[in-house]
Write a structure and sequence with these properties.
- The chain has two domains: 61 residues, no CATH class; 117 residues, no CATH class.
- The longest helix is centred in the first third of the chain and has 34 residues.
- The two termini are 18 Å apart.
- Helices cover 79% and strands 0% of the residues.
- It is built from ten helices and no strands.
- The model has no long low-confidence stretch (mean pLDDT 87).
Length: 179
């Protein structure tokens, strides 16, 4: 009964048990995993509070009407450009993009624009692009962006239309807590 009730924590329990056993028996790979985890955890503790404050400000300051007008059902092709521009400055990866996605969805952005935002946050972030330019060159980066961004927009449009035709909606907080 206890395990069934807390089964979502089983992986975390065994993970930390593995780390504890690794330190007890001096198992080097386990100790390295622990060091990586705690270093990543400390970085996240410095980034996440600032990021969530900015996301909260975005949620409060950007009006629903503005999102509906520029990224909603009646928006034009510029909505995809807005999604890419909004995703470009995101620092820290996709896990910081998802709260923005939630805010966009609740404020009326269409699914295809949300998919474009997710993809752009993964492939066209400014920090990643400047890093890529320094290692692979400007020509490679421009070719990659010129190929990947149109493909991203096209696939987002197809996926958004398909899911909207199926009457798909993203899960809300109320629906997820009910499960």
């Amino acid at each position: 009964m206890f395990i069934h009730k807390h089964k979502k924590y089983i992986f975390a329990f065994f993970y930390f048990l593995f780390i504890l056993v690794s330190f007890i028996f001096d198992f080097t790979p386990g100790k390295m995993i622990a060091q990586n985890f705690f270093s990543f955890f400390l970085v996240m503790c410095t980034i996440l509070p600032c990021a969530f404050i900015l996301i909260g400000l975005f949620d409060v300051w950007v009006k629903k009407e503005a999102i509906e007008k520029h990224m909603g059902k009646e928006s034009n092709a510029m909505s995809y450009v807005w999604a890419i521009l909004l995703a470009a400055p995101i620092v820290g990866g996709l896990y910081l993009a998802f709260p923005v996605i939630d805010s966009l969805y609740r404020k009326g952005a269409k699914l295809s624009v949300i998919f474009t935002f997710i993809g752009a946050a993964a492939i066209a972030r400014v920090t990643m692009t400047t890093f890529e330019i320094s290692f692979l060159g400007l020509k490679f980066t421009l070719i990659r962006l010129c190929v990947s961004l149109p493909l991203l927009i096209i696939s987002s449009i197809f996926l958004g239309r398909y899911l909207e035709a199926k009457k798909y909606t993203l899960m809300t907080k109320e629906q997820s807590s009910a499960k």
